[in-house]
Design a protein that fits this description.
- The structure holds three protein chains of three kinds.
- Chain A is 23% helix and 34% strand.
- Chain A is of the alpha+beta class.
- Chain A folds into two domains: 226 residues, Rossmann fold, CATH 3.40.50; 116 residues, OB fold (Dihydrolipoamide Acetyltransferase, E2P) (Beta Barrel).
- In chain A, strands 6-7-8-3-9-10 form a six-stranded mixed beta sheet, sandwiched between helices. In chain A, strands 13-12-11-14-20 form a five-stranded antiparallel beta sheet.
- In chain A, α2 packs across α3.
- The model of chain A has no long low-confidence stretch (mean pLDDT 89).
- In chain C, α5 packs antiparallel against α7 and α10 crosses α14.
- Chain C contains 14 helices and no strands.
- The two termini of chain C are 35 Å apart.
- Classes of the chains: A alpha+beta, B mainly alpha, C mainly alpha.
- Chains in contact: A-B, A-C, B-C.
Chain lengths: 376, 305, 272
């Protein structure tokens, strides 16, 4: 039982409030990822859960106990740091066993647990080395090993992969996901990389400016962002935003104008929207149809073509001067200065009001409420 | 589920907040206390002695003196002479060490064979204890009969100079500069080395010659380090004592008596505690004027960092 | 491109000439220490039969060893004491700063501004009354206090460079502050602590105001002992040179090795 519950958590440095009241319920054995731009407060929030930053106000519960006033070591957590934070003067074995030694566990018990963790992480041959003699990936493993040895209720990860090169990062991503599966522990993971968040999380928490923008499964955030910030932050390449106005409003459908004179009718709740309102139409590049068609159409002049092999990214300037990007077939022969027609399907469009909020979609995506696949 | 009672207990724990917050102030206190005592006790005693009659040789000379000591001191020409000497000594050594130090820093920043060893030779005098450097200069360099300089002068057909009688202050300035130029050099060299090499290369591409480079790129970069050198040296130079004690004993007459030496001679040679203490107070005031500037610079650096 | 190699030649000549001129007095003293007393005061010459006689004589006079021991005792003792006070203080200020920390640091620095001559008289009288005059222990106390602000400052700047994540990892692993200090910070900061200690040793070894005023024979370190030769005693120059060379040589070597750290230490981190 290791739920993590945050109730109206706030953090201030002097007069500056950096966490402005966060409520969050992380279920037992959930893989929860905090994501957001730098300075959004995600690391501060994690450090408050770890007990490295004091909680200015609010309540933090781990496994049913309020832990606001407990020291980090008494919270049943362990943490993997961005810089690994290995003790440079200790061998790998001493690094991994340090917490047990501090807890005055018997030597043979420490040895057994360290050997066990080393076996899982394939660190056995490195146990007598110092951290300086290890590669980046090996250090990362030792840091994880140090976390495992304590057998915590909750693992905390603070951007653990950001110091690794791209290839190693993908490999460690898979290992950490695997580890989550094997250990059945609650994990809280901070990253600024939305790809990491999308690929690993059961639950993503998008933060900005010290407040939670949205909490949900990866596909929930991808298909049903509640506002323009989340829509723009999640997904790669970024969502297109087109300035537009509302042409027609029905109960479950809002029709907005398109550059070049067309319209598209988006199945969303009308809420307070009325005809003539300025809105932003959002559509992801991968949802645009090359050659037009769909439920609405725009056309523009191609500015840049990026051929990625599997797909082609096209940047174009629309008739009214707005720019758009589209991910189209990798075998498309389109060239710069060509005119391109792009079709929009109404169920993949998003309508954001002037204050950035999304009009709620009528239909939920069938996978939006499913976790990373293991289905806890 | 938590019972109401345990929730209440948890709430009160949130309020008191003393269980987790680590208090490391006991680690700091010993240092703060000893430094506070070191700062305040002797200073208070100096202030106290400066307003009483107190001579170690004359037990009958007692009682409250008020500002008598200060009055005598301020009327005493030796105070003004020694203050002037202090200023001359500090001022000349500062100018010499900054100018020569900067030139040396530029010279030894250039690449040439054996540069690193040459640098070590240049900074060496800074590590020589003041009494030894005073004795080297007094006995082996500037001695009118056996000194190396006297030998050079006679070899050139000149009459050897008796440096410490004819040019006492100049000799002291020479010795002290020899010790403190290396310090200025060391700091300015470090500062020059931290100069962005891309900035220098950009200036060279823009057509800056060595002179323009020095005045437009190097000197502005050195500004802060020069002010640091000036202030740190001021602290030490105001307290110059051993060099005078070993070579001239403040003489001839009062020619090389600075404030430190005056207070020493009044207090520990003539045993007039009250009078010497009044002099001490004046030295403290002088040093504080310098200190204010130094502290301001350092605190500005702290804010930057 | 030819004038660039010309420049290099000039630079080399100039650089070496200046360096040798500045170093000359030390060199000359070193040379004198290997001459006989007669040679030492006769016409300067590089040609002479080197002798170790002076060194032997200096060592025979057991009081030289006593003064050397006083120097060692005073400078290392005061350095250890200062480190014992300063390490916890710098740790507290570097890793648990409060609103008052910058002010405390500046105040500590300001105590270093006190001119020694301003407090000479009371210290002298206090020492006289406490029986500390002419004792190495008394001098050691003064040097500890004298160097404490610099030592705290230097350690503070070194500790600031220690990655705090390592200490935080320790806190997650359950260290107490005392364990954090001894099991993590001190091992991590050993190089910084060592160079701080070296600076403190150098400053104490070469200090000559307090040693001249507070000691004379029993407690006198080398600075005061060598000053006692200030009276014109031409006949002892070679032996004096030998004694002086031995007094400055260790510090010269240490100083050469730690010049970089010295800069940041002596300028309170203002120049790195």
């Amino acid at each position: 039982m290791a739920e993590v519950i945050l109730k109206n958590i706030k953090k201030s440095y002097g007069d500056v409030q950096v966490i402005k009241g966060v409520d969050l319920h992380i279920k037992d054995k959930e893989f929860c990822i905090f994501v957001g731009p730098s300075g959004c407060g995600k690391s501060t929030l994690l450090r408050m859960i770890a007990g490295l930053e004091e909680i200015t106000s609010g309540e933090l519960h781990i496994g049913g106990t309020q832990v606001n006033d407990l020291s980090p070591a008494d919270r049943g957590i362990s943490m993997v740091f961005q810089s690994y934070a290995l003790y440079p003067h200790m061998s790998v074995r001493e690094n991994m066993g340090f917490s047990l030694k501090l807890a005055k566990q018997p030597a043979e018990e420490i040895k057994r647990k360290v050997d066990e963790a080393a076996r899982i992480l394939k660190l056995d041959p490195l146990l007598d080395r110092k951290p300086a003699e290890l590669s980046g990936g090996q250090r990362q493993r030792v840091a994880i090993g140090r976390a495992i040895v304590r057998n915590p209720k909750v693992f905390l990860f603070d951007e653990p992969l950001s110091n690794l090169d791209a290839a190693l990062r993908v490999q460690m991503r898979i290992e950490i996901a695997r580890m989550h599966h094997d250990f059945d522990a609650t994990m809280i993971y901070v990253t600024h990389d939305q790809v990491e968040a999308m690929t690993m999380a059961d639950k993503i928490v998008v933060l900005q400016g010290g407040v939670i923008e949205q909490v949900g499964s990866p596909l929930d955030l991808y298909h049903h962002p509640v506002n323009k910030f989340v829509a723009g932050f999640m997904g790669s390449p970024n969502m297109n935003f087109l300035e537009s106005t509302i042409k027609q409003v029905e109960d479950e459908c809002v029709t907005v104008g398109l550059p070049g004179g067309g319209t598209v009718s988006v199945p969303v709740k009308r809420e307070q929207a009325s005809v003539g309102d300025k809105v932003t139409l959002g559509v992801r590049p991968e949802h645009l149809l090359e050659g037009g068609g769909g439920d609405g159409e725009v056309s523009g002049k191609v500015l840049v073509v990026e051929r990625l092999g599997g797909g082609t990214l096209v940047y174009a300037s629309l008739e009214d001067g707005q720019s758009i990007s589209a991910q189209i077939d990798g075998n498309s022969s389109i060239k710069v200065d060509d005119t391109i027609k792009l079709g929009l399907r109404n169920e993949t469009c998003h309508v954001f009001t002037a204050d950035g909020l999304a009009l709620p979609q009528i239909d939920r995506h069938p996978l939006a409420d499913v976790g990373r696949g293991s289905g806890h | 589920m938590a019972t109401p009672a345990s929730t209440a207990a948890a709430n009160s724990a949130v309020k008191t907040k003393n269980t987790r917050k680590v208090d490391t102030r006991p680690f700091l206190w010993p240092s703060v206390i000893v430094l506070f005592l070191w700062m305040i006790v002797p200073l208070a005693m100096t202030l106290y002695y400066s307003v009483i009659n107190y001579n170690l040789l004359d037990p009958s000379f007692t009682g409250f003196a008020g500002l008598e000591n200060y009055k005598f001191l301020l009327e005493d020409p030796s105070l003004w002479t020694s203050m002037w000497n202090t200023l001359v000594l500090v001022g000349s050594v500062l100018i010499i060490s900054v100018v020569v130090g900067a030139l040396l820093a530029v010279l030894y920043n250039a690449r040439f064979p054996g540069r690193n060893i040459a640098r070590l030779l240049v900074i060496a005098p800074f590590f020589v204890m003041p009494t030894v450097s005073a004795l080297i200069w007094k006995n082996m360099m500037l001695h009118p009969v056996n000194g190396f300089v006297a030998w050079l002068q006679s070899a050139l057909g000149m009459v050897p100079t008796d440096w410490f009688s004819q040019y006492p202050m100049l000799s002291i300035i020479l010795i002290v500069s020899w010790q403190w130029v290396p310090f200025a050099f060391l700091i300015l060299l470090t500062a020059i080395q931290s100069l962005d090499s891309e900035q220098q290369e950009a200036a060279r591409i823009d057509g800056a010659g060595p002179v323009a480079m020095f005045f437009y790129i190097v000197l502005p970069h050195l500004q802060r380090s020069i002010s640091v050198v000036i202030m740190i040296e001021s602290i030490f130079l105001l307290a110059i004592f051993a060099e005078i004690y070993v070579t001239t004993s403040g003489g001839p007459g009062l020619a090389t008596t600075n404030l430190s030496y005056l207070i020493y001679s009044v207090g520990l040679l003539q045993f007039d505690v009250g009078y010497a203490s009044a002099g001490g107070v004046i030295a403290v005031i002088l040093a504080n004027i310098v200190a204010i500037f130094l502290i301001r610079t350092v605190s500005r650096n702290m804010q930057k960092a | 491109m030819q004038n660039s190699s010309d420049n290099k030649l000039w630079l080399t000549v100039l650089g070496w000439t200046v360096a040798l001129m500045i170093f000359f007095p030390i060199f000359w003293m070193a040379l004198t220490s290997f001459k006989t007393e007669v040679e030492a005061v006769s016409t300067p010459s590089l040609l002479f039969a080197p002798t170790l006689e002076n060194y032997a004589q200096v060592f025979e006079r057991s009081d030289y060893l006593k003064f050397a021991w006083n120097s060692i005792y005073v400078s290392f003792g005061s350095t250890l004491l200062a480190l014992a006070f300063a390490i916890p203080a710098a740790y507290s200020m570097a890793f648990f700063p409060s609103k008052r920390t910058p002010g405390t640091l500046l105040w500590m620095l300001s105590t270093k501004m006190m001119p020694p001559v301003g407090v000479l008289i009371p210290i002298y009288l206090l020492f006289r009354d406490m029986g500390l005059l002419d004792t190495a222990t008394g001098l050691m106390i003064i040097y500890t206090l004298m160097n404490l602000p610099i030592v705290i400052w230097m350690l503070y700047t070194y500790f600031k460079d220690v990655p705090i994540e390592i200490l935080e990892a320790g806190r997650v692993d359950g260290v107490t502050p005392v364990q954090e200090l001894f099991m993590l910070l001190i091992p991590l900061a050993i190089p910084g602590i060592a160079s701080t200690g070296l600076l403190s040793v150098i400053l104490s070894w070469n200090e000559a105001f307090w040693s001249l005023n507070l000691t004379s024979s029993q407690g006198a370190p080398l600075t005061a002992f060598i000053a006692s030769y200030s009276a014109p005693q031409g006949l002892f120059w070679a032996k004096l040179s030998a004694a002086s060379l031995m007094a400055i040589a260790p510090i010269l070597v240490v100083g050469w090795m730690s010049q970089k750290q010295l800069v940041s230490g002596l300028t309170f981190g203002a120049v790195k």
